[in-house]
UniProtKB/TrEMBL annotation:
This is ATP-binding protein. CDD domains: HATPase_RsbW-like. It holds the Pfam family HATPase_c_2. The lineage of its organism: Bacteria, Bacillati, Actinomycetota, Actinomycetes, Kitasatosporales. One of its GO terms (molecular function) is ATP binding. SUPFAM superfamilies: ATPase domain of HSP90 chaperone/DNA topoisomerase II/histidine kinase. Residues 38-126 form the Histidine kinase/HSP90-like ATPase domain. The keyword Transferase applies.
Length: 133
């Protein structure tokens, strides 16, 4: 069975984070992958929040969300134009009020990473097993 792909663009705005989360849930329900909805929505929320926070200091007006379902893997990608800092997994001090998003992404995903985009920016990608178990 060939894979499926869905691409959406969202404005760099805090209001776009819940819109992106809802978009992911709806696409996954349509693809009969609704059981991945909550984890994928939480991951989307973390990555979209990072894109909005950092790209606001960057050069772009949008972030892009791509979902792909192929060979039993759901690939979720968020791309933005913020090119000066690549996200890194770190352990924040207990007193810090932020910096835990990638810990959640790491815990919920099979794999994740980041790659620079051609031109400006980066793409953070996440793999989730599409099958239960």
């Amino acid at each position: 069975m060939p894979g499926r792909t869905n691409t959406a663009r969202f404005r760099i705005s805090r209001a776009s984070v819940p819109k992106a989360r809802d978009h992911v849930r709806l696409v996954l329900i349509g693809w009969k992958l609704g059981h991945l909805g909550e984890d994928a929505a939480l991951i989307t929320s973390e990555l979209a929040t990072n894109a909005v926070t950092h790209t606001a200091r960057g050069i772009g007006d949008y972030f892009e969300l791509v979902l792909r379902s192929r060979d039993g893997i759901l690939v979720l990608e968020i791309s933005d134009s913020y090119q000066w800092e690549m996200p890194e997994l770190r352990k924040p001090d207990p007193e810090e009020t932020s910096g835990r998003g990638l810990l959640l992404v790491d815990a919920l995903s099979q794999a994740w990473g980041v790659r620079p985009r051609t031109g400006a920016g980066k793409t953070v990608w996440v793999h989730l097993a599409a099958h239960r178990g």
